[in-house]
């Protein structure tokens, strides 16, 4: 077999190898792109979660006979992270009344809430206040009274995330001390009015506004900051794991992917060049074969028959060209 035949036999291998290399390279590049997307999505591993405390809403049903005022306090939290976060209140918040902040109860009915990725969630708490006890008896509120009410907003942020680069967990407790003035009017009819809610990090900084000052537009905010969550060892480990695993995936995907694509492109280029050379050499080979056949035919010896009556042996002569 000649050189052309050997090259021709290698063409299918070059074609198949080139296609396989391109496919593997494309898959590796896709892995690199996916790892990049995940890296951007989880950088940083944790972003601040803001919980806005809305002013309590008065529930109907107050009477001087019971003296109980029911308030509903709603907290709205936004989760910007690419995983869900659990909210709960493991520590019941106290309810206090008066300037000396006498404890009269606890905030109840705070259900656990799961905050989906990129979504908002409402956390509702019920605040029950015995206004007659707080004001010192029913007689004190016959003509109306104003009672300062204080309460604690305790919120636990619990992260238990399973991600593409591993799982991690972190938990932090946050607290805000809040208060507002509650005024009961009995003349000409019973009416409850609420002042604006104010929240601070501790009681000493808390200054309540009067009911007549109107409702303020500000809403206190609890921020579950990345700095506080970053103190957790699991969070630090998750950051390192993300950088290591996704960084390696990007390096392997882009690096080997580019190598396989180059190898595949070179193999296909050589296959095409070999095919083109084989196609151009085919007409010349056919002409050479035809000329060889004609030469063989012309060199074939011819037998000359003797004349009639000639009994001599006639030698076989080759007809010269």
Work out the radius of gyration: 46 Å
The percent of residues in helical segments reads 25-40%
Report the strand count. 13
Q: What fraction strand?
A: 25-35%
The assigned structural class equals alpha+beta
Distance linking N and C termini:
33 Å
Described by strand count, sense and barrel closure, the largest sheet is: 8 strands, antiparallel
Report the order of strands and helices: HEEEEEEEEHEEEEEHH
Give the overall pLDDT as a whole number. 75
Shape: rod-shaped
- Unreliable spans are 313-321
Separate helix tally: 4
In short:
Helix 1 runs antiparallel to helix 4.
Could you characterize what this model shows?
With 321 residues, this protein is an alpha+beta fold. The protein has 4 helices and 13 strands. Strands 4, 5, 6, 7, 9, 10, 11 and 12 form an 8-stranded antiparallel sheet that branches. Strands 1, 2, 3, 8 and 13 form a 5-stranded antiparallel sheet that branches. β9 and β10 form a beta hairpin. α1 runs antiparallel to α4. The longest helix has 66 residues.
């Amino acid at each position: 077999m000649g050189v052309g035949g050997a090259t021709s036999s290698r063409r299918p291998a070059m074609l198949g190898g080139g296609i396989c290399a391109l496919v593997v390279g494309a898959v590796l590049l896709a892995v690199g792109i996916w790892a990049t997307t995940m890296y951007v999505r989880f950088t940083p591993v944790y972003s601040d979660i803001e919980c806005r405390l809305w002013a309590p809403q008065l529930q109907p049903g107050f009477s001087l006979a019971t003296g109980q005022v029911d308030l509903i306090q709603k907290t709205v939290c936004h989760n910007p992270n690419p995983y869900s976060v659990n909210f709960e209140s493991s520590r019941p918040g106290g309810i206090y009344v008066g300037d000396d902040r006498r404890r009269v109860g606890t905030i109840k009915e705070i259900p656990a809430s799961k905050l989906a990725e990129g979504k908002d969630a409402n956390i509702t708490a019920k605040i029950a206040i015995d206004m007659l006890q707080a004001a010192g008896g029913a007689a004190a509120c016959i003509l109306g009274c104003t009672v300062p009410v204080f309460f604690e907003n305790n919120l636990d942020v619990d992260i238990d995330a399973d991600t593409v680069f591993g799982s991690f967990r972190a938990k932090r407790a946050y607290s805000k001390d809040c208060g507002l003035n509650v005024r009961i009017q009995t003349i000409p009819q019973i009416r409850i009015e609420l002042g604006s809610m104010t929240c601070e990090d501790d009681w000493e900084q808390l200054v309540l506004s009067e009911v007549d000052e109107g409702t303020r537009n500000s809403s206190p905010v609890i921020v579950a900051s990345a700095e506080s969550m970053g103190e957790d060892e699991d969070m630090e480990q998750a950051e390192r794991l993300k950088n290591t695993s996704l960084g390696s995936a990007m390096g392997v995907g882009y690096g080997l992917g580019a190598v396989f694509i180059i190898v595949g492109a070179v193999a296909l280029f050589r296959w095409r060049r070999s095919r083109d050379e084989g196609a151009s050499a085919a007409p010349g080979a056919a002409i050479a074969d035809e000329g060889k056949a004609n030469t063989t035919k012309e060199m074939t010896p011819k037998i000359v028959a003797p004349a009639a009556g000639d009994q001599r042996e006639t030698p076989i002569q080759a007809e010269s060209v």
